[in-house]
Design goal:
heterodimer; A: about 350 residues; alpha+beta; PH-domain like; 3 domains; 7-stranded antiparallel β-sheet; 4-stranded mixed β-sheet; rod-shaped; B: about 325 residues; 11-stranded antiparallel β-sheet; 11 helices; globular
Chain lengths: ~350, ~325
């Protein structure tokens, strides 16, 4: 017969009795000395004994109806003894929560697995989900969203009305092959930059226009931005970013403040970087547009060279940070320009371009 | 004059970040894999561990709640929320201004009623499922009374532009502590709305003036105002709770936890939890004579976890 020292609580009073547990063949016997020095014993039938799920080295058993009697035991040999003594009753059920009792390696393995899952969700699942959500946004909602963004954004800039009017006239002369209504706004900013908002608004900084030498460059820039609009690149980007913020805020249990600061970054769109895949897609669409309109693709080569910093000072080339420029893009433009046939007369476009240049010099 | 006691007690926390991490990681994985359905079991496991590592007078606390109980509550709570959101959605889809404003009214009205119901239910469940040396805690508040009190207090707070809210919070604490039981032990909260209001005014403006530096003293004061006003009674004997938290200690806790959570992208949360509990336990002293062997069982069993889960969804944290 094996005895274990336990602590016994009778469920009526908060006395912790230091007691002895004896494992009898068909019951448990708990005996202890009462504060009045009287020797008492309690009998527990085996079947109704309940084991507490334990997370420490403490084994806890309960017995009876509420309020239950309890015994706590710290002796490590107890589980083995119980198994030997009462093979028909399972005292310690293996639970999934017991994994933490496994080796450190298991836990670290699980942590790595979790990180891998989260990383996979962030880099693979999230973009797909965000794109799927972006695709379900109807065009009317997209236009409203874009207008709202345009409204809040444009207040931060000084609009060049003259150049804006001329630039919109320039746009009318090109068929961009998109259902989106394209509206250009030229703003006075000492940066080489341009960006497209969802729904068809395109904001162009005057510095990039005045740095350009030819109408083809401007046509190439516009065609490229229109392609971003057409393929809903900025909408997709916004959803990706929002999804990313949401994901991180969930991960961090939303430590207030940080996320708000990130989300409040009103400059978000101007700083959103398009992925290379999106840039290439936009380039291809833009080149196809100029090609079918019979506009020389040399515009792209000149535009990329302008962006590369051959003309302007590199520090103010903000466009590059949002539209990553790679050698491949430049090479592709050169190759396409060499192959190009069917360039049409563009005297009307030239006239409109010259008007922009004049407006830009004012 | 501070009364002098020659007997004082403290809760001790033996939990370790590494151990909690093992539970936490399994919880997250299973919750992810089951699309959230495992959440109640995850919560039960966390609470069981945290209770088991909390010690008073050589005995550990026990959390008796089970994942199953909380799952049933979870489903009920989801049902209630779905119902409310459906009403709101239908009202918005009707595109009729009257129905829309009516729907909004119902929505906010329902939330206003749900919050006290959640607090009440969570208190009843959580206390009933907590024990020490086999003696259960309990909450004897009356739901109807509490809901009425909550709605009236909220409305007055809104109409006084929040000024009444300080008196309101104190009223709530008084009611909750008055109805809190630990076996035969009873409690009370001795705070005062006016003092609490001025404490907040002072804390808020000094924090503003010092660009937030004072906020650590402010939080220390808030913690102290909570703890110092708790009384516990064993028969005629009164016990007083006392805070020893300092602004420096609070700063170390907050700055440390923020760094831990940020640098580990949330994976370090278990260590942050352990640090927070240690901070609370080590800064809370119970002064006064207590016969730890004479607390008798007085409370009944209560296993409905709907309030607990509702409270989770509305994001009400219970201490």
């Amino acid at each position: 017969m094996r005895n274990f020292s336990v602590r016994y609580h009778d469920g009526r009073l908060s006395v912790a009795h230091d007691a002895m547990l004896t494992l009898m063949p068909d019951h448990w016997l708990i005996h202890y000395v009462d504060p009045s020095e009287e020797l008492l014993s309690v009998r527990w039938e085996i079947a109704p004994i309940v084991t507490d799920e334990s997370f420490t080295g403490l084994f806890i058993f309960r017995y009876g109806d509420f309020p239950q009697q309890t015994i706590e035991c710290r002796e490590t040999e107890l589980p083995v003894a119980l198994k030997e003594r009462y093979p028909e009753k399972v005292f310690f059920r293996k639970k999934v929560t017991g994994i933490f009792r496994q080796s450190n390696a298991t836990i670290i393995g699980l942590a790595v697995l979790l990180i891998a899952l989260l990383a996979a969700a962030y880099w693979f699942l999230l973009p797909v989900a965000a794109e799927a959500v972006a695709a379900t946004i109807p065009r009317s909602v997209e236009a409203k969203l874009g207008d709202a963004m345009y409204g809040s954004m444009i207040t931060g800039y000084e609009v060049d009305e003259e150049m804006t009017t001329r630039a919109n006239a320039f746009v009318k002369a090109i068929d961009f092959k998109t259902a989106y209504p394209i509206r250009i706004t030229v703003v006075k900013e000492d940066d080489v930059n341009a960006f497209a908002l969802p729904g068809g608004n395109i904001i162009v900084f005057d510095k990039i226009v005045t740095s350009m030498k030819t109408k083809e460059e401007f046509a190439a820039l516009l065609a490229h931005e229109v392609a971003h609009v057409h393929y809903r690149h900025s909408l997709r980007n916004i959803f990706r970013n929002l999804g990313g913020l949401l994901f991180i805020s969930l991960l961090l249990n939303d430590i207030n403040g940080i996320v708000t600061v990130l989300a409040d970054n009103s400059n978000m769109l101007a700083n959103l970087t398009y992925s290379r895949a999106l840039e290439t897609e936009a380039d291809q669409k833009a080149m196809a547009v100029l090609q079918s309109d019979g506009i020389s693709l040399k515009g792209f080569v000149d535009l990329f060279n302008l962006l590369k910093g051959a003309h302007g000072d590199a520090g103010s080339l903000k466009l590059l940070s949002t539209h990553p420029l790679t050698e491949e893009r430049l090479d592709l433009a050169k190759a396409k320009a060499r192959e190009q046939v069917g360039i049409k007369d563009q005297s009307e476009l030239q006239r409109r371009w010259e008007e922009i240049v004049i407006a830009g010099k004012k | 004059m501070e009364p002098h006691y020659n007997e004082s007690r403290q809760l001790t926390f033996h939990g370790e970040g590494a151990k909690l991490f093992g539970i936490y990681i399994v919880n997250i994985l299973l919750t992810l894999v089951t699309l959230g359905l495992y959440y109640p079991w995850a919560k039960a496991a966390m609470l069981k561990y945290l209770y088991e590592e909390s010690e008073l007078e050589g005995s550990r606390f026990t959390f008796h709640g089970t994942g199953k109980e909380m799952f049933i509550g979870f489903i009920k709570a989801i049902g209630i929320f779905l119902g409310i959101y459906c009403i709101l959605l239908l009202a918005i889809l009707s595109k009729n201004v009257t129905i829309m404003s009516l729907g909004l009214l119902v929505f906010y009205g329902a939330l206003l009623v749900l919050i006290p119901i959640a607090i009440h239910g969570a208190l009843r469940y959580r206390t009933s499922r907590s024990s020490w040396r086999g003696i259960h805690f309990g909450y004897r508040g009356d739901r109807k009374e509490f809901v009425n009190m909550f709605i009236v207090g909220s409305l007055i707070s809104i109409f006084t532009l929040g000024i009444y809210s300080f008196w309101f919070i104190i009223e709530l604490r008084k009611y909750i502590f008055k109805n809190l039981r630990f076996g035969s032990l009873t409690f009370s909260y001795e705070g005062d709305g006016k003092a609490f209001f001025w404490l907040n005014v002072k804390g808020y403006f000094l924090s503003l003036i010092t660009l937030g530096i004072y906020s650590f003293w402010y939080f220390k004061d808030l913690f102290a105002y909570y703890v110092d006003n708790i009384r516990m009674y064993q028969g005629e004997q009164q016990l007083v709770f006392r805070s020893t938290a300092t602004a420096g200690g609070y700063f170390r806790l907050i700055a440390g936890n923020l760094l831990i959570i940020l640098l580990t992208l949330g994976l370090g949360t278990p260590w942050a939890i352990v640090r927070a509990i240690r901070f609370v336990f080590s800064n809370m002293i119970i002064d006064g004579p207590l016969d730890v062997n004479a607390i008798s069982q007085t409370e009944e069993d209560y296993t409905d976890a709907t309030g607990e889960d509702l409270a989770d969804m509305i994001d009400i944290g219970l201490v």
